[in-house]
Amino acid sequence: xxxxxxxxTASSGMLASQVSLRAVSDNIANVxxxxxxxxxxxxxxxxxxxxxMGVEISGVKRVTDQYLQMATLAASSDANRWDVVSxxxxxxxxxxxxxxxxxxxxxxxxxxxxxxxxxxxxPSSSLLRSQALSKVQDIxxxxxxxxxxxxxxxxxxxxxxxxxxDRANDLLETINRLNSDISRAKLANADSSGSExxxxxxxxxxxxxxxxxxxxKAIGGVxxxxxxxxxxxxxxxxxxxxxxxxxxxxxxxxxxxxxxLGFAQxxxxxxxxxxxxxxxRDDILPGMQDQLGEFMSRAAEQINAAHNKSxxxxxxxxxTGRNTGLDLPTAVGGFTGQTRIxxxxxxxxxxxxxxxxxxxxxxTPGGAFTPATFLASLNGALGGAATATxxxxxxxxxxxxxxxxxxDEGTSNKSGRAFSxxxxxxxxxxxxxxxxxDTSLASTxxxxxxxxxxxxxxxxxxxxxxxxxxxVAVPAGTTMANLLTxxxxxxxxxxxxxxxxxxxKGALSFAGSAPxxxxxxxxxxxxxxxxxxxxxxxxxxxxxxERAGRAGRYKVDPALTSNPMKLSLATLDLSVAAGQPAVTAxxxxxxxxxAAAGDVTTDFSAAGELGKVTMTVSRYASExxxxxxxxxxxxxxxxxxxxxxxxEAMARRQSVEGVNIDEELVRLxxxxxxxxxxxxxxxxxxxxxxxxxxxx
Length: 696
Description:
The chain is an alpha+beta fold. The protein has 16 helices and 24 strands. The strands form 9 sheets. It has a 4-stranded antiparallel β-sheet with strand order 12-11-10-15, with helices on one face.
């Protein structure tokens, strides 16, 4: 071996030691730097002509474990999804107040019933009447407030999704750009670990927002793909994500076409903060809002049912019903049992009455009637003592002269509601829209919508990815059965993905079919029942927009607020002797009916976490309050579980990627000794050269 070979071998060893010492120094200096991955120097023997000529540096690499990295990213996505859900559910739960406090929302219902119980003991007290009405208005106001704050919370979540998508686009662009820097460094056999560390931190941040697949490129850098494998970054131009949503439809994330050519391609989003926010915006918060609306509507319904069974003294001259959304023949059709309308003087003494037998379809006085002739027959039977009108879906009665009105509900019934209650003639709580969606329509009833008018739906997967948009025209056939057939048509309707059904109370609902289990949204509704009547979505409560506003529609009848003495706290008794009052001022039996309204069993439609159930309003209040707490606790539990997995995965990843001072000190000593050995070898070669020179 020549001296030149010795010198080259020693100098290559010294250079390798210097590079290695520099890598160890960087590791030690960054022992506590977040995101720093320790690096090592790849050394290879330098062989020339079959002879060892020292050592060469093949590159500086970061010590990573791809499996642990993917496990960490997946766990981070899941943890962040449930973290944001838990955070907002805590906010939603707080809207209802402290369950142990006096202002807890659901305890206000007990306050209402307690106030009417007190009024029953002294029904002539204007103060007790005012207090009872105030309690009713109080819970209505609170329901409206909470419903409004749910809407505000949804808007906040919506804005957060947009912000996260914008940030994800920035991250994809930067990750893609860093790939070029890393590849250039790799080709030049330079240290690219700085750029790789920055890129790794950006990938980690991206994983907190959405679930991704990360691959390593052979020339350095990474590729980022969506859950289904769509390229997002790393292969040329970074993809641009878009957040697609409307107030009426579920949101989804799509990859926009490059250069504006083609169509946006929806991608699966199963993890990360974006998924959690979209779950909140599209499912969880609307579900709670719908459940609040269902509770408010059923509570109002039972209070109104009791108030319609009651009578006021002095009796009201006018009884104005609610807009049923139906024409009168359809509204009257299907009633069973008997009811009685009484005309009373201001002292409560009956002057005349009309008995209506829906089973026999007769009136006394009067005679036979049909649903089509009901109004004319009723006016004839009233004989001028009162008049009945039907306008814009609402039935109204007006007594003649100074007389007033009272109604004995008797055994009348249609879809669980008695005559006066069905038409809302003596409602305590009024609504400026549809409350419950039990229309009472049967399959043989006329649907009432104008043929040719259209309603448009969007069918989507559970995660919001659209399946198909469908526009259905109202058929020429006039019955509800014809309408259902058109809606469920597999070609022009929704039949391929699910079906609409009409229950015994006339509630229309959609259920998706396997395997897609599609969700349905209303994108446009141009239908109208009659002239100026409700649309199909308004009448049947189709779509989140219609159902979301229910909680804010209720208020105490202004006529009662202005004069609490008009509150119906007595009951009508037409069995008294002639000349005796059928309604008396000291009668508090009507107030007791209202006080017991919370214990009346009623049917609740499926809403939020609770399915279709039959229970009392008071029990539903407890179940509703409990379901909110369970959702919040469930999200917190899943968050803690996901964080535990994420922390464990991160700890194992850090054990591989992180800097261990003891190991680095050992390497530092080793490389120092190697450097010294190479230096001594050079010195030995110099001494030998000097000896040879002196010999010559």
